[in-house]
Specification:
globular
Length: 284
């Protein structure tokens, strides 16, 4: 039976409930993280918790736990679920309030930790690669809801996902307000051109992915040059290789974008090298 942590207590999945007046539900007012468990070890837990607290600080949300207490809550929930390989979703909402936007009228921020399984893409796509479609829904402007905030309001990403599904693709390529490539609906993007690994910088309007950072470390350790530079759709179309990274997706190759075949239409050698290096890193 799956156990869910809510405010220091564990509940059976069917009994895990919060108020319908919670501003997390009413307005998407809260923050979250996605974390992986590999062979009983939580991958980069401190980095994820640090980012959770940074997101909360950015929206002026006071988390009622310290970072060390949050780490302890996550670890205890994983232990309670006896999960050796899986996915962790820590969530902090603004708490219950009135039917109105004023955050001062909310009380008791809710701390929730869910531990479960996740499968984002079919296994064959990791071998054969997936296809992207550029969508008309752009990534949030940094002066609106900054994409560096991992907030509960993911409607921007969901609208992009709807567009990609309608185009017959499982993932959407999202541009920023300048028309440059930002990221996908749930993943960061990397290109390979002449052996150099390229990915958009944080000021392109992206979430600073924990997996993205790990992949950059893996690449540099392997002697692969990495550049964080602005990327256009043209760069994607003419790339030798392309892959996406994310906590749930890990490292997945891309072989087509907007009907254009990338490289030779198969996952390339750099992508395979990075994926193998990432797997080794997560299993250490």
């Amino acid at each position: 039976m799956t156990k869910v942590y809510i405010n220091s207590k564990l509940y059976d999945k069917a009994d895990a409930k919060i108020s319908v007046y919670d501003h997390g539900l009413l307005y998407g007012d809260g923050v979250f993280e996605g974390i992986r468990i590999y062979d009983g070890k939580i991958f980069r837990l401190k980095e994820h918790v640090d980012r959770l607290f940074e997101s909360a600080r950015a929206i002026k949300l006071e988390i009622p736990l310290s970072p060390s207490q949050m780490i302890e809550a996550i670890q205890s929930t994983v232990t309670a679920n006896a999960k050796k390989n899986g996915y962790i979703r820590p969530i902090v909402t603004r708490g219950a309030g009135t039917l109105g936007l004023d955050p001062r009228k909310t009380t008791d921020p809710q701390v929730i930790v869910i531990v479960d399984d996740i499968s984002l893409y079919p296994p064959e796509l990791y071998e054969n690669g997936l296809e992207l479609a550029t969508v008309s829904t752009i990534r949030n402007h940094p002066n609106a809801v900054n994409p560096r905030i991992k907030s509960l309001n993911y409607l921007n990403n969901i609208l992009a996902k709807i567009e990609s599904i309608q185009a017959g693709c499982l993932e959407a390529l999202m541009l920023n307000h300048k028309g440059e490539v930002a990221e996908c609906s749930g993943d960061n993007i990397f290109l390979v051109k002449h052996g150099v690994l390229k990915t958009p910088p944080t000021d392109s309007g992206i979430l600073e992915g924990i997996t993205r950072k790990a992949v950059i470390e893996v690449a540099r350790k392997a002697g692969i040059q990495v550049q964080e530079v602005s990327i256009t759709r043209h760069d994607v179309y003419i790339a030798d290789e392309c892959f996406l990274t994310g906590t749930a997706a890990e490292v997945i190759p891309v072989v087509k974008c907007d009907g254009r075949t990338i490289g030779n239409g198969k996952p390339g050698p750099v992508t395979r090298q990075i994926r193998e290096g990432f797997v080794q890193l997560t299993r250490q």
